[in-house]
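For the sake of transparency, this paper describes our internal protein records without simplification. Because each token names a local backbone shape, the row as a whole describes the fold. One such record is reproduced below, unchanged from the form in which we store it.
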Amino acid sequence: MGDSRGGCCPPMDLFRSEPMQLVQLIIPMESARLTVSYLGDLGLLQFKDLNSEKSPFQRTYAGQIEKCGEMARTLGFFKEQMLKAGLSPSAKSVPETDIDVDDLEVKLGELEAELIEINANGEKLQRSYNELVEYNSVLKKAGDFFPSAQQNATAQRREMGSSQISEESIETPLLQEQETSADLSNLVKLGFITGLVPRGKSMAFERILFRATRGNVFLKQVPIEAPFIDPISAEKMEKNVFMVFFSGERAKKKILKICDAFGANRYPFSEDHGKQALMISEISGKILDLKSTIDAGSLHRYHLLQTIGVQFEQWNLKVKKEKSIHHTLNMLSLDVTKKCLVAEAWSPVFATKHIQEALQRASVDSNSQVGAILQVMHTRELPPTYFCTNKFTAAFQEIVDAYGVAKYQEANPGVFTIVTFPFLFAVMFGDWGHGICLLLATLILIVREKKLSSQKLGDITEMTFGGRYVILMMSLFSIYAGFIYNECFSVALDLFGPSAYACRDLSCRDAYSIGLIKVRDTYPFGVDSAWHGTRSELPFLNSLKMKMSILLGVAQMNLGIILSYCNATFFGNSVNIWFQFIPQMIFLNSLFGYLSLLIILKWYTGSQADLYHIMIYMFLSPTDELGDNQLFPGQKRAQLVLLLLALVSVPWMLLPKPFLLKRQHENRHRGQSYSPVETTDVTLHSEASHVSHGHGHGDFEFSEVFVHQLIHTIEFVLGAVSNTASYLRLWALSLAHSQLSIVFYEKVLLLAWGYDNMVILVVGIIIFIFATVGVLLIMETLSAFLHALRLHWVEFQNKFYEGDGYKFYPFSFVAIDDEDD
């Protein structure tokens, strides 16, 4: 929805959404798939599900979707294998060929079977190779220490046998009961087990062996420096060669169980030195043969994955398209003859010609004897909202849609948001130095947008990249506001001419204004630099920015009310014009429009009138004389009239509208219950308006409408005050941004500059840069962005924007690569 579609879109008109129509398509079965495919390429139809009562497994094309899902699983397996091999799907443009889905299914199945077989064989060979490598190391290490270990074990056993008349055996209970039939001659005949145990488990392995056999074993361990790949777990780990000497079958069984529990791999070992050398030679030859076989298999697997990678994107896109096509076909209903499919879909009015061309092309290409039929249906259902945007306007439209999608053809605040959003941001962020920094960062994103748009970005980076044109406008308006405030990193510069003021004496910077005298014409653009650095700077700028915030707020709220008039006129709702637009304009401008007029008059005349006093006593004592606070003749009488109009406008908004709506409903229900269905656009707009307010045919409740109007009236009256006060955030954040900038400049940069030390200066510059970027360019940007967002969503859009529509989501192949299955 957010992208323009080349020649398919008419000249963009963002103020109203595109006129929509509900069309019915009757498509012959033989051309159904190709027709839906061409409509997907066009991307201007949103199909309605005519089989919503059926489960996914009961639909006509459930088998084809299952087949596409299986092919997608196979492609996912290929992608996983390519990533493991360090390959990525080829980004080169392969000449697109028309692949038959059945042939593709067979080909993918064959490739998957081949790849699985290669993987299985490779795993077997690799396991054998790892076992042989371990066995080779065991033979070499164990052969070195076997004779001495055997002698030590035998000597230890004989010593234990001679020290006790009846040796304790494995079967002796823990209460030291002696075996009555001990045979010393059998005790010295030792068996042994050789293998590898993970080094991290070697200590525990030794302790368990000792406890299980009550010390009747002799264990010898030697660490190996080079790590091994374990044949079973395929993990790289460090291991020790071990040799356990024991006597008796019971001891052997226990040792074998302990080895299995600790993941110790056991290998046969011969006592004969000649056999050991022969086995080492034989195993070394097998290792070389296996290595060459594994390398050949890996090379074959790599070439196979390369072949798959060349066509992977084409196959993946084909499968996704087929799946989406059959998913759309499942939304169509079968004709009674079961020879045609019937579809209902929303489309823009301008797309009718393009849709007919696609239907004709599909009929010709599929050799169908009967062409598809397109007819426009008349309905009172509210159409979806479709704005034909481009890459510049899409981000601004997303800001509006995040609050709520516009109702069909209501006034779109996105048109004004393009200007007002970055402008209000700039009022809070105004500093042309910081604005240039934002502009440079944004230009990098814009210059590299083709490259970045094709990459997978992080969440924050992707969000920033998507709003690059919003940030561009924000930076340009920030530069403009910075010129008005005359601030560049909090430093005032005479860019547009010399200052109009000069110091009368050296003490003028400590005075409010008496120390400055005007010696030239007024500074041509923005704030005179002479104000910066004086004691009167803060009171002057506070007064300026506070009043400017009120003027901007009242202007934008008036714009919102005017847009409500545009909506009422467009939908033919005269009740809203007379009993919503007019009293709202009167109430808002009787109070805050009058305040804005007083601000302008005070600036123009240079009067010292107290505007706070005027507005407060306009309510408390409207008949009192104004005295020095009078700005124009007849002000007292004008205030009385405005106050009276404001009081009258409240019941004007509250009372007439519910009764008029009730009478309209009764007349419509009584006089048009059996009238023919009208099909004009005015009827559609009027019906949509009534439905949106909850008082259409048959469901009108006067109490609900009256309560709704009461809430709306109270909300507007109280909101007129709170919303105007809310615009003072423009003044507050502008002041905060300016003062933070001054603190970083004076207390960091200038303070470091004052020391005659290069190290302190460099550290001060680094701290200043990080503080400026981290606080002023990131945190303050986010803060001003959120506050500008709130002013648009709450203070501006609640005057006219209902936002209860739903988006137009056409069936399109444009963004199919970004979708996850």
Confidence is low (pLDDT under 50) at residues 1-8, 165-188, 673-697.
